[in-house]
Fold these 4 entries.
Entry 1:
Amino acid sequence: MIAVHGSVLAQEIEIESPNIAYSAIYPILIVFGVALVGVLVEAFAPRPRRYVVQTVLAAAGLGLAFVGTVLVAGDLPETQNGLARGGIEAEGALAVDGPTLFIWGAILLLSFFSVLLFAERRLESGVTAFAGQAAALPGTEAEREASTRGLEHTEVFPLMLFAVGGMMLFPASNDLLTMFVALEVLSFPLYLLCGLARRRRLLSQEAAVKYFLLGAFASGFFLYGIALVYGYAGTVTLAGIDGAITNRVGGDGLLLAGIGLMAVGLLFKIGAAPFHAWTPDVYQGAPTAVTGFMAACTKVAAFGALLRVFYVAFGGAQWNWMPMMWIVAALTMGVGCVLTLTQTDVKRMLAYSSIAHAGFLLTGFVGVQAATRDSDDMTSLVAVMFYLLAYGFTTLGAFAVVTVVRDSSGEATHLSRWAGLGKQSPVLAGVFALFMLAFLGLPATSGFMAKWAVFTSAWAGDAQLLVIIAVLASVITAFVYIRVIVLMFFADPVGEGPTVAMPSVLTVVTIAAGVVVTVALGVAPQPVLDLAHQAGEFVR
Amino acid sequence: MDLYLPILGLAVLGAGFAVVTIVTSALVGPKRYNRAKLDSYECGIEPTPQPAGGGRFPVKYYITAMMFIVFDIEIVFLFPWAVAFDSMGIFALVEMVLFIATVFLAYAYVWRRGGLEWD
C-alpha cells in the first residue's frame, strides 16, 4: 500500500497548459464579461444611475457579442469534406461551428430586444416591471415602502446576461459535462428572474418555485443520464460517445437508459410533452418581459443542444431513439394544440401555443439529417434553426404586445378583456393579429416558411405520419388564433374595456422588430435559409 | 481485494464509533429537557418561523455559510494550480488571476450591499 502511494507522489506530473483559441470563443466571453461589469455597477454606482448604466451596458454588450459572432463566422475553416465549417475549441469543451454561430446570432439578437423589454419603464409610470424589493413579503408594509420609494432591482440585467452566456454555451458544448454546467448557468438566473414581477407577486413567486423545483428534477435526470452514458462509453466527449456507439462497446441497456434520461432533461427545457407541465404556470406568473425572453431564447438554446447531442453523439443509435422522439413530437403537438383551445388567459394561451410549436420543431428534428455537399435539400438542422429564429421573433413580439394592454391592476391578460381591442387601437390589434397568423402559419408570414421547412425535412425523412399529425394540429390551433382575432375586431368590449398604454420607444422598437422579422422571413426567407445552409453540419 | 481492506477497516471503525457513542450517551447521559432542546435543530440558527404565521427570517447566517463555501471551493482549485504551476507558466497565472477576480467581484457586491454587516 505504502509503496503504491510513494510511487504516485514521487512521479513528476507533467501538465501542459491548455490551448484556448480566444479568437473563436470571445463572443461568449464578452457576454460574461459585461455581466460581471454589471455586478460591479450594482456594487459601486449610485442607485439613481444604475438603471441607465445597466441598460446601456447590457444592450451594448449583446450588440458587441453579435458583431463578434458575425466576425467569427466570417473566417470559419471548412472541415469534413466541406460539409461542416468550424472546429473544436477550448481543449474539446466547445464546438464553434456553423450551427453554433447561427444559434449564437439568433440568441444574441433575441436577447438584445429582450433587454429593451426589460428596460421598459413608462408602462409602470417610471419604474421597471420588476419588484422593487423582492425580499419584501407581498402585501406588507416593507413592500409598500419599497414601492413608494421607487426602488428597482437593476440586478435583472446582469442576471439576464448570465443566462444569455449559459444559453450560448449550451448548444456549443462538445462534452456532456460542459453541457450540464451550461444548463445550470442558463437556468439559475431564469429561476430568479421569474420571481421578480412587480405586480401579482404571489403568482410570480409561485412560478419561480415551480420552475426551480421541476428544473432541479430535470437537471437531476439529465445528470443521471450523463452518468449512464459515461458508464457505457467511458468518455463524456460527444465524438467519443459516437465512436463507442459505432463500435458497440457494451450492452445497449446502459446507453438507452442514458439517452432516455438525458432526453428528459433536454425536453423539459424545450417544453415538450409530457415534460411541459411547468410551462403555462411559469409563463403566466413570470414578468412578461422575462416570459418573452424565455419563450424565445431558452427554446433556441435548448433545441441547439438537443440537436447537437442527438445528432453528433447519439447519431449511431438513431433507430433506437427515433420512435421515442416520434411519440414525444406527436404527444407535444396534441397536448399543445388541444389545451390551447381551452385557455382564457393570453399568457397561458401563448404558453400552450409554445408547447405546440415545440412539437412542430420536434417534427423537423426527426427529419433528414445528413446533408450532401452542394445540395439544397432541406435538412432538419436548417429547418429547425430557421424555425427557431422565426418563432423567436414572433413570440417575443407577441409577449411585448401583452405588456401594453393594461387596466388599473396591471396587464389585462384575461382574454375577455381583449374584446374590442381592435376598436381601441387598430394598429396594436393588427400587429397582434399578424403574430397570431404567423403562429398559425399563414402564407407571407415567417410561420408559413418555418412550417414549410420543418414539414419538408420531416417528409423527406420518412416521417410522413408526423407531418400529417402536424398539419392537423395546425388546423386545430388555427381555431384559437382566429378566435382571438375575431374577439379583438368583432366583439364588443366588456365594461370599459382594456386601455392600451402608450409604451416608451423601447417596447415599440421590440414590437416593430417582431413585425419586421415576421414579415421579412415570410416574404423573402431565402437569405436566412441560405445562411442556415452555409452553416453546414455540426463538427465532430 | 487487499487494496480495499483499509477502506473496510475505516468503515467499521466509523460505524463502531457512531454506535458506541449513541448507545453510551443513551445509557449514561442525563436527560433534562427544556424548550430549546425540544425545538427543531437548524444548524444553530433560530428555527424558521411557520409559513402560516408568516414573518421574515434573517439571511445573514446563509450569506456567511455561502461565502465560506465559495472560499472553500476556491482553495480546492488553488491547490492543484499551485502544484502544477511550474509546468504551466504565465498562462496559468493569468487564468487564476481572472478566476479569483471573478470570485472577488461577487464579494465586492456583497460587501457594498451590506451583506457583511451582522447587525
Note: The radius of gyration of chain B is 23 Å.
Entry 2:
Amino acid sequence: MTQALKIDNLPTPKEEQWKYTNLPRVLGDVAELTPQEPDEILIHKNRGWIGEQAEEIVWNGTGGQLHNPRLKIVLEEGAQLTLIERHEGEGRYWKNMATEIEIGANAQLTHVRSQEDSDEGVQTNMAHIHMERDSTYNAFTMNLGGRLTRLDIHAVLAGPNAECGLNGVSLLQGQQHADTTILMEHVAPHCVSNQFYRSLLDDESRGVFQGKVHVHQEAQKTDGYQLSNAILLSPKAEMDTKPELEIYADDVKCSHGATTGQLDEEPVFYLRSRGLNEAQARMLLIQAFVDEVVDKIGDKNIEADMHEKAEKWLKQVL
Amino acid sequence: MIEIKNLYASVETDDGEKEILKGLDLSIESGQVHAIMGPNGAGKSTLSYVLAGRQGYNVTDGSITVDEQEFTSLAPEERAAAGMFLAFQYPVEIPGVNMNTFLKTAINAVRKSRGEEELDALGLLKLIKAKTKALGISDDMMKRAVNVGFSGGEKKRNEILQMAMLEPKFSVLDETDSGLDIDALKIVADGVNALRSPERSFLVITHYQRLLDYIKPDVVHVLADGKIVKTGGPELALELEEKGYADFIGEAA
C-alpha cells in the first residue's frame, strides 16, 4: 500500500459490476494522492454483551490523501450493538475502505452510516457480512456527500433464521454519483432479507442500485425482498437500477421492484385540494418518501438525526 | 350561492384535448343540496375536477363563482381556502404521511389562508377527537398513512372527516356512495347531514338514487353529454331509478 496504485489497476465500466460507475475518471491521477497506512478499527463484543448506547466512529478524509480505513466488527453469540459510522472530510481524497462484519448466533447489529464526505471526496467501501443462525443485521446508509461513493455489500446468510435488512437513502445534487451494489447470498434455509433503497436526484447527479439476491439450493423457505425507488428532480439526473434474482431453491418467496420517475401528480393535487400550497404538498410527499426508509432504523434518536439531515437537504434543494 | 354559467371544459388526453363539458348551467342557493345524476361518460367526474381546479382540466368558456368570487383562475389550494371541498370518488393514498400530520397540516394551511389563527397541538387534537368520534373513525386509523390500506368505507369516511374539519361552504361529493354497503352509506350520509346549515351548499354527484334516500336533495339535475338536460325535485331521482338514463342518452346523441 505504500506504493501508489496505477490507474490501470482500477476497475472500469467495462467490468459488469462497475458498468455504471466510472471510478478512474472521477479519481483522475491517483499518483497525486499520498497513500496512508491502513487505519484500523476492531470492535469485538463478547458473548451476551448488550450495548446500552449507540457507539460512534468518525472517518475523516483529508485533501490529497489516499486513506485505507479498515473496520472489523465481531459480535459473539447473543451480543447486541448499535454502531454509527460518520464519514466526513475536506478536499479531494479517496477513502478506499474495507468492512468486515461477523455476527454470531442470535446476535444483533444495527449499523448506520452517515456519509457526508466532501464534495470532491471519493469513497469506495467493500463490506463483507457473515451471519450465523438467528442473527439480525439492520443497516441504514444516508448518502449525502462525496463526489463519488460506492458501497459494495456482500452479505452471507450462513445460518438458518438470520434476518438481514439493508436500507438506504441517497440525496444527491450537482455531479454527485452514489452507487450501491449488493449481493445478498442466502446459503441457509428460513432466512429473511430486505433491501429498501430510495434516491432523490437533483441537477446532474446519478444514482446506481444493483441488488442481487442469490438463493442457494439448500436455502429453502427464503424470504427475500428488494425495492429501489428513485425520484428525479431534474431532467439531467440519472438513475441506473439493476435488480436481480438468482434462485436455485424451489420453495422460496422472493420479489423485487424498481421505480424511477417524477413525483406523482395525483397526491400533489389531493393535498392541494385540502389547502396545502404546491411547495408544501411537494415537500410533505418527498419527506414521506425519505422517512419511510429512515424509519426502518428502529432507534428513535438516530432516526431523528437522519430526519433532520434529510430535512435540511430538502429545504435547500426544493 | 354557487353559480356555474355556460361552462365549457376540456380534458387533456393522449390524443389531445377532449371537450367534456358543453355549456353547463347550474346555480345552488346557500343552504341547498343539489344532486347530479347521469349516465357513465356524461361528465360527472370531470365537473368535480373542474370545480376543484385539477391540472389538465381546462375551462375554455363560461364561469364558476362561489359567493360572487370568480373561481376559474384560482389554484386548488386557493379554492380550498375560499371554502370549496371535493370529496374524491377515489381518495388518493399517501404513503408515509400519517392521518394526524395530514389533517394538522391541512387545517392550519386553510386557517392561515382564511386569516384565522392556527390551532395548536392541543386544539387540533380536541377537534380531531370530536370529529372522528362522530364518524366512528378509530384511533388506529388515525395513526396509519392517509388512505393506505383503508377499506372502501374507511376511505369515504375519511373524506367526510376532512370535510367536517375544513368546514367548507361548498362541498362536492363525487360518487361518495359508490361501493359502500348500507351501514357505511348511513354513516357517510349522517356525516353530511350533520354539516347541513343555511350557509353551506352541497353538490352530490351520484350514479344511484339510493344515496338520496339518506341525503335528501332540494333539487335533482340530470347531466348528459356535458350539459344539464333536466332539472326537477327529489321525485326526479326516483323516476330515473325506474326508467334509467336511456331517454337522455338518446336525446344527447
Note: Chain B has a mean pLDDT of 92.
Entry 3:
Amino acid sequence: MSAAREIIPPPGPTPNGERSAGHLASMAVRGGDFLFVSGLAAVDLQSGERIRGTTASETRHILTNLKQLLEAAGSSLDKVVKVNVLLHSMLEAPNMNEVYARFFPDSPPARTVCGACLPHGVKVIIECTALR
Amino acid sequence: MREVIAAPLPGLDLRQHYGHHQSPAIRAGGLIFCSGMLPVDPETGERRHGTLTSEAHVIFGNLKLLLESAGSSLDRLVQVHALIYDSIEYDVLNRVYRQYVANGPPARTVWTARIEAGFKIQLDVTAAA
C-alpha cells in the first residue's frame, strides 16, 4: 500500500524566481498527513522577482507568501509544526525573530534557527513542515 | 491534531529566557518535532558553553527530559540534524553521539553552520511520539 504524495501547485506564476532552481524543486509537497514546504526566499509571487531587503523585510515577505501558499493548499500558519530558518548572519536573528512573532501570535511551531551561506545575496530562507 | 509540548523544566523554555518565538516541541501526526536544542541549564536556562563534547552532553540531557515528558524517549528518535560550528569536530561529535544512540540510530545529517551565541553544536530532532 502506498501513501498519498501530491505536488502542491504554487499560488503565483513563478514563485521561486527566474534564476532559482524553480524547476528542480516543488514549492510544496504533501506526504501523508504533512505538507513539506521548500526553503523560501523573498520573492514577489506575481513577477517571480527576488525582493532584496533587510532581514526583517525579507522575513515579512517570505512569511506573507508562506501564509498564502499554505492556505492555497488547504493548510494555514497555525497548522505549521516545524520551521527552519536560515540566516546570512546570526547577528540578524533578533530582527528576524521580531517579525516572525507577528505571524505566529499563539502556540508557535517548533523552530530551529542557524546561520548559513545563502545563494544570490539572500538574507533569509525559511522552510517548514505543516499539517495538511 | 497539533499539540504544543511545554518545557518540562523552566530552563528549557527558550521563549521565556531568550525571547525565541517558538514552542519547545510540537506533537503532530504521530511525531514530535523539537525546536533546535541548545546547551542550556535545564533548571535556570543559563547558557552552558564548553567543548563540543560537553555541550552535546547537556543537549542530550535536555532532549531526554523533553522527549520523556512528551511520552517519547531517546530510543524513539527518527531523524537528527546535527549542526556543528566546524567540520573538524566531526569525529568528536561521533564519539559523544554514539553514547546516546546505542541501538538502531536515527537517520542523521551533519553540517557546519553558525549557531546562536557562539555555541558549538545544536541538534534539530524529530522523534516518534
Note: The CA atoms of residues 45 and 102 of chain A lie 21 Å apart.
Entry 4:
Amino acid sequence: MDAFLFFLFAAIAVVCGINLVVQTHPISSALSLIGVMGALAVLYLLLGAEFIAAVQVVVYAGAIMVLFVFVIMLLNAGAEQPSNKSRLAHALGLPLLAALLGVLSYLIQRALPHSPRVIFGSFTKGTAREVGRSLFTEYLLPFEVISVLVLIAILGAVVLARKEID
Amino acid sequence: MSAVPLSWYLILSAILFVLGVAGFLYRRNLITMFMSIELMLNAVNLSFVAFSYQFQRVDGHIYTFFVMVVAAAEAAVGLAIILTVFNNRGSLQVDDVDSLKH
C-alpha cells in the first residue's frame, strides 16, 4: 500500500512538474504547481511529517499560490512569446539537464546503497507537539530572527507595490 | 514489496529540482520563472523531510518550516517587484528587462 501511494503521488508530482515547464500560459503553470504541492503533502504524510504536510497545504498551496494566481489575474498575463535569443543554449539545455539528473541520481544511489525502507507510521516525531517543542526550545533564536524577516518582507512588499498618490 | 527505499524519495526530489531548473532556464515569463523557483524549494523540502525520517530526528521538519517561511516572504517581495516591473515596462517578458545590459 505504501509503495502504491508513493508511485501514484510521485507520478502526479512529476507529471504536474513537467506540465508546469511545458505550458506557456502562467495560469496553467500555477495550477500545475498546486498539483505538485498537493502530491508532495501526501508524500510528507507517508514520511510521518503530519505537521509539515498540513503547513504545506495551508501555507504553500493555500496562501502563496493564491498570491501567485491573484497577481496573474491582476496583470492579465497572457501566453508568453517564444524567445529566440540563443539556439545553442536551447539545444544544449536538455542534455545538460539530463546529465545533472543522472549525476544527482548516481550520487544518491552511491551515498545510500542500503537506505531503510519507508514504512508509514514508523516515524512519530512529526506531530505539531514535537515540532513545536523543538521550535520553541532548540530553535528559538532562528524562530525570532525569521519573524523579523517576515516583518521586513511585509514592509518591503507594501513599499514596492504602493502607488504614489500625490 | 510493500515499501519503497528512502533513496527513491531523494531521487524524486532530484527529478523535481531538475524540472524546476528547466523551467527557470526555458521559460521567458517572469511569473513562470518565479514559480519554477518555488518548485525547486519544494524539491529541497522533500529532501529535508526524507533525511529527517532517515535520522529519526525532527530537525529536518524545522528546516522545512523555515524554508516555507522564507518562501512566503520571498513570494510577497518578488511579486511586488514583478508588479512594479509590469507597471514600468508593460510587459512580463524577461527579455524586455535588460536595462543593465546597455
Note: The CA atoms of residues 136 and 144 of chain A lie 9 Å apart.
